[in-house]
Input
Amino acid sequence: MSFKTRCLKSFIIISFCSAISFSSVADSLPQFDIYTEDWHPYQFEQSGQLKGISVDLLELLLSDVGSTQTSKSFQLLPWARGLKYLINNDRSVLFLMTRTPERDAQFKWVGPLFNNTTALFAKKKRNVRINSKQDLANYTIGVVIEDVGISYLDELNIEGLKTSLN
Output
């Protein structure tokens, strides 16, 4: 099965739930494998519990459609692993994810929750100055595996760009 086919088979819970009747369906709702990454303040672990703005919103949505699932069933994973599980499991949900043109047709989307900005950061004392995209080749840039940020860097087509995967 191709990567694209596996991605198309994956879906987000909200699109599934919006397609069903909300009257007395709690018993017929499937249980989902729900994944997310540690990303303050949206989702993070605190004292052994998953907390955050997006966790609260997803719990409310699940409750509104009659699901018995709560944040106790959500799994906090590294980003790349959560994405892999989403692609390979038809009954999976991954939240939050940046929507890009490349990802658009791969998944069913709900949102946006907010507009995301991807940026590069450096310690102030390093006095980093970037005047052109080619200046980025003078630095090693840390990126999250499978994150949208590395896609943006790839699109810049910078000769000699060095990245370090986290």
Notes: The two ends are 28 Å apart (CA to CA). Helices lie at 3-9, 13-18, 53-64, 79-88, 101-104, 148-155. The chain has a mean pLDDT of 82.
